[in-house]
Design a protein that fits this description.
The structure is a single chain. The chain is α+β, with helices and mostly antiparallel strands. The protein has one domain: Beta-Lactamase. It contains 2 helices and 8 strands. The chain has an 8-stranded antiparallel sheet, sandwiched between helices. A hairpin with a 2-residue loop joins strand 2 and strand 3. It is globular.
């Protein structure tokens, strides 16, 4: 596995690569400030504003605050992740959105993130989800991944939820497929 970080003052791209047999695989991601979320990106913008509208008195919303009927336009782009355990190996998907290509699903819902078969991608998910759980702040990324010659480029926002308003126990991740020409694979 090879990991590299490319950076400038305006953006930082992290890259990890690994081989499965003769196949070169790679994952690249760039974290951007939440303010960089494009307003023309209806899916991620809707997810962020929906999450923000559920906050009360500066506290984080609870997963119980999510009303599926209010987010029908974005539900197929949405994953729900249970991060209530202090052990990252227990974190798991509760819902996996329908727009995620079958290639990137390593099973059905309730899969543990630690069971992801692609180590650098798994590590990226655990790192990002852990950061949102720890800080209680949303994160926005652009990501490019290639596994077994299949490429997928997407933007993602990860939003924290907490039953008590403070201790993050669930995450909502929304993804939107997009070209990222400056993250070539």
């Amino acid at each position: 596995m090879l990991a590299r970080i490319f950076g400038s003052r305006t953006s930082r791209i992290e890259e990890a690569s690994w081989n499965t047999g003769a196949t070169p695989n790679v994952v690249k991601r760039r974290q951007l400030p939440i303010e960089a979320l494009p307003t023309h990106d209806e899916v991620l913008d809707t997810a962020y504003h929906y999450w923000h509208s559920k906050r009360r008195q500066g506290l984080l919303p609870s997963r119980n605050d999510i009303d599926i009927l209010e987010i029908t336009k974005i539900i197929k782009h949405t994953h729900l992740i249970d991060v209530s355990s202090d052990k990252t190996e227990d974190w798991c998907f509760r819902v996996v959105g329908a727009v995620v290509p079958q290639t990137w699903q390593w099973g059905c819902g309730r899969d543990k993130i630690s069971d992801c078969p692609w180590p650098p991608y798994r590590d990226m998910l655990l790192q990002d989800y852990g950061a949102v759980k720890f800080t209680g702040a949303p994160m926005y990324h652009e990501i490019a991944i290639r596994v077994d010659w299949v490429a997928y480029h997407y933007s993602r926002i990860v939003l924290p939820f907490a039953d008590d308003g403070r201790s993050v126990d669930n995450l909502m991740s929304c993804v939107f497929h997009r070209d990222t020409p400056d993250l070539p694979l």
